[in-house]
Amino acid sequence: MKRSTLLRRAKAFPALFSRGVRCDLWCCTQSPQIRKLDSQGAEDGAVKAQQRVILKCNAKGNPNPVFKWLKDGDEVKARKGLKIRIGKRSSRLVIRNATVGDEGIYTCVAMNAVGEDRKNIELKVRSLKHKGMNLKQAHSMTATK
User: In sequence order, which residues have a C-beta less than 8 Å from that of residue 55 and are 6 or more positions away?
Assistant: First the structure.
């Protein structure tokens, strides 16, 4: 099919070509949409120091999205005690032993050739005093878009 024919059809059926979706006879593409961003390891909305935390991000898109994680705007790289797992439509950021240094705004970014989507989750850590194991500070974890 000629390009001019496809363009005429796109003008005739704008609903098929809006909201990040583009269809033709050969393929249909869709910009990524993060469906869910949550955490495992939170207790009553707070994460304890030295506790394992898993941030999970699920997204859909065509082609399947590629993921990256940001912390306070900077890209997160795997390191000792921090792993990033990538699946076809999901990504997990695993912090083995959370510390106050891990606190911040984490952003899941899902990208493909059509576009990107991003969502934030705030990670706060309850640190413990050495003597008596009293709580020094208590924080919660909240998700935002």
Answer: 37, 38, 39, 69, 92, 93, 95, 106, 108, 121, 123
